[in-house]
Every structure is written in C-alpha cells, then in structure tokens.
Amino acid sequence: MRFIVRRLLLFVAALFGVSVVVFAALRILPGDVASVMAGLNSPASRVEALREQFGLNRPLVVQYADWAEGLLRGDFGTSILTGRSVTSLIAARASITFPLIVLGLLVAIMIGVPLGVAATLARSDAARTAFHVAGLIGGAIPALWGGLLLILLFARGTGLIGLFPSQGFPLDGWAAPGQAVWSLILPALTVGIIVGASLMRYTRSALGDIAGSGRIDMAMACGMTRAQAVTGVGLRLAMPQLVSVIGLTFAEMITGVMVIENLFALPGIGSGLVTDVGNRDLIAVQSELFMLAAFFLLVGLIVDLLHRALDPRLATAADATEVIA
Amino acid sequence: MIVLRSMWRRSEGKFALVVLGLWLFVALVSLFWTPQPLLATDGYHVWAKPSAAHWLGTDGTGADVLSWLMAGSRTNLLIVVLTVLFAGAFGLLLVAAMVARKSALAGASVVVIDALISIPTVLLALILAVPLGASITVIVVACGFGYGLNLARVARPAALLAARSSYVESALAAGASGWWTFVRHIVPNTLPVLLVQLSLSAGTAVLAESGLTYLGIGVPSGVPSWGHSLATSVKFINVYPLTVLWPGLIVTIVVVALNVFGDVLRDAADPLSNPELRRS
Lengths: 325, 280
Prior knowledge:
Membrane topology (chain A): Multi-pass membrane protein
Helix content of chain B: over 70%
Oligomer: heterodimer
Subcellular location (chain A): Cell membrane
Strand content of chain A: under 5%
Number of strands of chain A: 0
Strand content of chain B: under 5%
Mean pLDDT of chain B: 84
Protein name (chain A): ABC transporter permease
Keywords (chain A): Cell membrane, Membrane, Transmembrane, Transmembrane helix, Transport
Family (chain A): Belongs to the binding-protein-dependent transport system permease family.
Low-confidence stretches of chain A: 317-325
Helix content of chain A: over 70%
Structural class of chain B: mainly alpha
Number of helices of chain A: 14
C-alpha cells in the first residue's frame, strides 16, 4: 500500500516536472515564441499582435499556470496553423498510428515467435548460427533503410514487384478501409521485421531459460517429442513474459514508428509532431510533447503496479535471483 | 593484449574487431584524405554510376558518395564516443545513488529511474531540439540520458551484490571512503554488464543518429554523417535507388559489430570465463 501511494505521488511529481521542462524548453528559444511563430522578416506589429493574441506578454509564471490549468481541465490548446484543437489533431493522427502499430505488431509476432521457436529447436550448429545471425542483422537495420529496401522491392510503380502504394494515406481516411489498410502494409512490414527480430531473440532466450529449468525435459520424459514440448509446454510457460514484452513494445512504438511514418508520408502522431516542430506551431508542440510524455509515464506506472500485483515477492526477488545466478 | 588475443580467436570477435578497426582507420584517414574534397561538386556528373573517379558514384549535387561516407564515419565515431561516455558516467552515478548506504537516497533513486525510463529517447530528443535545433548535442544528450537510465537499471543487481559483500564491508570498516570503495570494488563487479550495455548503447546510438538526422533533429545539414548520407538519398529513392544501398549497409554492419563486440569483450575480459587471464 505504501508503495502504491509513493508511486502515485511520484507519477504526479513526474507529470509536473515534465510540464515544467517542456514549457521551459519552448521559452528558452533564441528570441521568443511569438517572433519564431511569425517567422523571419515579419513586421514588429505582427509579432506584437501574436504576442497579444496568445498572451505571451504576460509573466512566465502566469503563462505556465494558465497552460497547466488548461491541461488539468483537459483543454490542450489550439494549433495556431490549423486552428483545430490539439485534442482533435491527436485523435486524427492516432487513427493512423494505432492501426499501423497493431499491424506492425501482428507481423512481428508472426515472424518473431515462430522463428524464436525454430531457433530453440534447431540442432545443427549451422542452423543455430543462421538464426543467431538473422536476429543480429534484423535488430541492426536502420528503420529508414529497411523501409527503403521494401519500397524498392514492393512499391507500386517503381518497385521490382509493384504491389503496394509507397506513399501517403487515403484522404478520406478510414471511409475506404481496404485502401487504408493497403497503404499501411509496407510500413507495417518494415516495423514488423525490425520488432520481430527482437521478439525472436526474446522468445529464444525465454524458451532457453525454461529449458534450463528442466521443464522441457520433464515433458519429454512424459512422452512428448521435443517439438511438442517446446511449442506446447515451453511456449505456454513463456507466454506471460512475452505478453509483457509485447505490451511495452506497443507503447514504445508510438514514437518508435516516427521515422517510418515520415518515410511513408503517413500523417500519424510521430510524423505530425515532427511537422509541428518544423512549422513552429509551438502551442501545439508544447501540448503534444506533454501529452506523449504523460502517456509514457502512465504506461510506466501501470507496468510497475501490475508487476507488484502479479508478484508480491518482487521487492526482494530482484536481489535474490541475482544471488542464485 | 591477452583480452584482444582471446577476442581474435573467436570468429565473431574477429568480425567485430575488423569492422571496428576499419571504422577507426577510415575515420583517421578522412581527417587528411578523401578521394574527392567534400565540397567539390561535379555538376556534370550528378547521380553518376560508380566509376574510377567516384568509386561509389555521386549524389544529387555531384558530390562524391564515398568521400561523404568516409567523412561521416568521423561524425558517427564522435557521437558514439560521446554518447557512451555520457551514458557510462550518468549510469554509474545513478548506480552509486542506488547502492548508497543512505536508504532514503537509494529508495528514491530506484523509483525515479523506474518512472523516467519509460520516456523514449526520440521524445527527449524532440524536446531538446525545440530550443537547440538540429545538433549533435541533441543526439548525445538524449541518447546518453536514456541509455544511462537503462544501464543503471541493468547494472543494479550486480552492484548491490558487491555493495553487500564482506570485502566492501571490510574496506569500509578499514576506513575507506564511500566513493573510493565504489570505484575500487563495486564498479569492477558490474564490469561484465557494463561492457555489454555500453556496446549495445553504442550500436543504438548509431541507429538513433540515422533516425534523428532523417527527422531533421540530429546532425545539422551540411555536416557529413551516415544518417545524412541515408537521408539525402531518400528523397531520390525512386530515381536513383543504388545510392541508398551504401550508407544503410554500413550502418547495419557497424551496429552488428558493436553488438557482437560487447558480448565477446565480456567473455574475454572476465577472469571467470577467460582462463588465460587467470594464468598471467
């Protein structure tokens, strides 16, 4: 109980800290927010008008209090460029980023788990080495390059085998679901291959740990073949561990797919944020950065609390297992 | 020397040493020689195919691809070294806080690390990039901070084990200061974890450089780096696909080498797993 209270207090403190850092980062710009937004060579009157409009001539503390109060009420401000509320911007972008992540994870699971099992089952040195090298290379490919290679292979028009569109998302969004999914295939494959390589390594090491504990041998002693024991017993035992890895990966991918979204010109959360930074849409950037940081802090909080709930020994277990190892 | 020799004996180690050695060598050479001067652009041979004058061809401004990649290896080396130093120093500082004898400090630092570790590097880089613009500092600080947190979390069990050992206790009882004991007795015990984590961090930093530079918040334009070469070729992927091959290939090979390097180095530098170190 004491842990939960302390962890919650820390979560609130971290939120406060992040909001201050984000606010400060935008205020220590060379020049001030208004002149940056107005752009070079704009008349002083225009800068002054902007300053007036967004209340930037008030003391910093007042500005911060105003923004923070808005955040507490769930009002994240308005984008200067588009005039839309930041909340609706994020929602529109999330409708692309989340399907992309889900598709990417599906690909990763379809690649990573079977390959991890196969790597565990592999007997010959050559096969083991091949799996090891494949895992290493898969994890070392820059996302940008992986995406480019897939475009070169499969993009409609220029690729060797023209199948999928390589750029953009249908303008009417999910009104045409088939088209929308079709445009997510190449980006999802790119993400899936890279994440799949790390999932393969996780699967293999989790299965290796379980085999080390003798439970695979036990199942085989009961008459299962090695393949049956690994897929039936081992994989099931490894499931909780894999699920928590996949959960964490899901959260990380929201910003992790930033490069991919940019490359495939998908207006998702990450690429939108980069665009806003480039456009100097600073009010939107401020709220978006805070929103994302808050989301990740929340994920961290949930993971921590879940671990506690699932394993009450955790407080001491971390040290204890190390002693045995 | 013994460590290097034991690393060389394994084929993985040979690969890592050769690749990283080449990287160092090319970075050094590029200081005073590249096949073509970096700013020499050959307007008549834009997007040229590989030839005797331009071994890997030219890019959209007629600049020599190989020369830019060679000069880029210098920037990437700088970024990796700075990031690893930052992450190592920051991580060890956190480890020191976590094994501190003041239990309030130790408890607080564990919880703070758990809370901060969930914030991704890219997000941190974006926050930094707003005031700083595209710069190497953004990459180094964002990556160093994130990897330092990770390092601290991974190295904690080994550090705790050492901190509670009888030899640390006797050192402290003999009047050694807390910091001296930490550097002399606790850090060496985390070395195996430290080496692996830092070399993984080095690899991730190379990948981060290419991603952040592509997003426009990494290495500033005009400064050669592998990410820069990759990003400039992206725009013309449909027209001149081959130029994109080289930078990506280099990054992949170097990252694999860095990841392997840590594993092999750990095995070779740990007296428990390398009998040769015990003999001497």
